[in-house]
Amino acid sequence: MRRALITGITGQDGQYLAELLRSENYEVFGLIKGQNNPKIEALQTELPFVELISGDLQDLPSLVAALEQAQPDEVYNLGAISFVALSFKQAELTANVTGLGVLRLLEAIRMVGGSQNNPIRFYQASSSEMFGKVRESPQVETTPFYPRSPYGCAKVFGHDITVNYRDSYGLFACSGILFNHESPRRGIEFVTRKVTNAVARIRLGLQDKLVLGDLEPRRDWGFAGDYVKAMWMMLQQDEPDDYVVATGETHSVREFVDAAFRHVGLDDWERYVTQDERFFRPAEVDLLVGDATKARTKLGWKPEVDFHSLVAMMVDHDLKLEAKKAGIRYP
Ligand code: GDR
């Protein structure tokens, strides 16, 4: 049985990836920091097959110990301070976890290594936020980086150090440059889930306003369940490499809001939505759209869920969730 260790196991990608690896017959280990908290308890209920190991991307000895315990064939580094807005407020912490955390994990892998004929394979969750102020569209693996947030800067370091360890030490290390990917498991602080949850609550009469920031930024939004397959596929190749993972379609935040409200029959959505400075960022990424030709041709990967199906999936999930919480029958 192959073994995999996932950092960021409580996040949306960690959960989808754990399910995928389980279906591929892996033994799955998840790194968690801290003591029991509601997120960890929920994970234990939803994904009881995941064996949890305590450790922290800020603490090298704990990473070495986690690798020794899990003895993984594959390590997926999905752990990070991943909320871009927060990274402006906690820039140093972001650099430490999202940036230096990658270096620590790579060092731990060098130290523990895995067996000689079966060295540990490493996946780094890189991000389209590295492209930032884009200088070419669509973005491909060779597009220059121009990050626009402490998060983006930290991800550039994580990406570069992954490539550097591959070049320097021959590690089987891959970097997936993933564009935005969403799901019903997305955290409520991210714009898509914030919108679908509010739309559900407004439709059910539980809320009357949705307060957002800038509605003009454009993102290439895909489904997280599709994207974790690309992560796994990267580590099954003969050679390590870097890949853009994206749908190739871009939509503004405004279009996402419009689609979500229309899905529940509220076409006059402007009356529910207001904007507030609080949700604007000191520097914004205006336009992202990826070209995943390399992933399509070399990995055979392609996204299955399109933009409107994704919006519908998330709104329908939140309608059920919020109706159940409020004890309302819906529809
Ligand atoms: P992003 O995701 O920054 O693209 O990073 P997010 O959903 O937070 O923002 C998307 C866009 O929406 C605008 N926006 C708002 N955003 C939030 N969160 N809340 C609001 O109220 C709001 N109003 C407008 C933002 O300004 C932005 O332009 C995500 C994260 O998952 C990263 O970790 C990942 O690397 C990238 O996607 C790819």
Automatic annotation (TrEMBL):
CDD domains for the chain: GDP_MD_SDR_e
Organism taxonomic ancestry: Bacteria, Bacillati, Actinomycetota, Actinomycetes, Pseudonocardiales
Transmembrane segments: none
Cofactor: NADP(+)
Entry keyword NADP: yes
InterPro entries the UniProt entry points to: GDP_Man_deHydtase (IPR006368), NAD(P)-bd_dom (IPR016040), NAD(P)-bd_dom_sf (IPR036291)
Domain NAD(P)-binding: 5-314
Keywords, ordered alphabetically: Lyase, NADP
Family: Belongs to the NAD(P)-dependent epimerase/dehydratase family. GDP-mannose 4,6-dehydratase subfamily.
UniProt cross-references to PANTHER family, sorted A to Z: GDP-MANNOSE 4,6 DEHYDRATASE, GDP-MANNOSE 4,6-DEHYDRATASE
Enzyme Commission identifier(s): 4.2.1.47
Protein name according to UniProt: GDP-mannose 4,6-dehydratase
Source organism per UniProt: Saccharomonospora glauca K62
SUPFAM superfamilies the record matches: NAD(P)-binding Rossmann-fold domains
GO terms classed as biological process: 'de novo' GDP-L-fucose biosynthetic process
Substrates-to-products reaction catalysed: GDP-alpha-D-mannose = GDP-4-dehydro-alpha-D-rhamnose + H2O
Superkingdom of source: Bacteria
Tagged with keyword Lyase: yes
GO MF annotation list: GDP-mannose 4,6-dehydratase activity; NADP+ binding
Function text: Catalyzes the conversion of GDP-D-mannose to GDP-4-dehydro-6-deoxy-D-mannose.
